[in-house]
């Protein structure tokens, strides 16, 4: 039960994080700042990786 709840939340998280990455990218592309474009990819990906590690640990601990 806990594992499926985590997986369902994970799907929602993937959707929202993807939307945020796209929005950040579009917003920063409009300013044409190379540093901003770099951060567009780096910050969401680092946050995404850390959160996905938490979800993986939660899933592993349930099984």
Largest sheet: none
- Number of domains as seen in the coordinates: 1
Average pLDDT reading: 68
Strand content: under 5%
Number of strands: 0
Q: What are the low-pLDDT stretches, counting only 5+ consecutive residues below 50?
A: none
Radius of gyration: 15 Å
Q: Using the alpha-carbon principal axes, give the shape.
A: elongated
Based on helices, strands and strand pairing, what is the structural class? Answer: mainly alpha
Helix content: over 70%
Q: Number of helix segments?
A: 2
Order of helices and strands: HH
C-alpha termini separation: 11 Å
Keywords:
mainly alpha, 63 residues, 2 helices, transmembrane helix, membrane, transmembrane, elongated
Provide the fold topology.
Layout: H1 2-31, H2 34-62
Helix pairs in contact: 1-2
Short précis:
By secondary structure, the protein is mainly alpha-helical. Helix content is about 95%, strand content about 0%.
If you had to describe this structure to a student in words, what would you say it looks like?
The mean pLDDT is 68. Helix content is 94%, strand content 0%. The longest helix is centred in the N-terminal third of the chain and has 30 residues. The protein is elongated. Helix 1 runs antiparallel to helix 2. The protein has one domain. It has two helices and no strands.
């Amino acid at each position: 039960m806990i594992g499926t709840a985590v997986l369902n939340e994970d799907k929602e998280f993937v959707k929202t994080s993807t939307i945020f990455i796209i929005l950040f990218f579009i917003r920063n592309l409009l300013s044409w700042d190379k540093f901003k474009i770099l951060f567009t990819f780096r910050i969401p990906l680092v946050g995404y990786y850390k959160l996905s590690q938490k979800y993986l640990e939660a899933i592993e601990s349930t099984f």
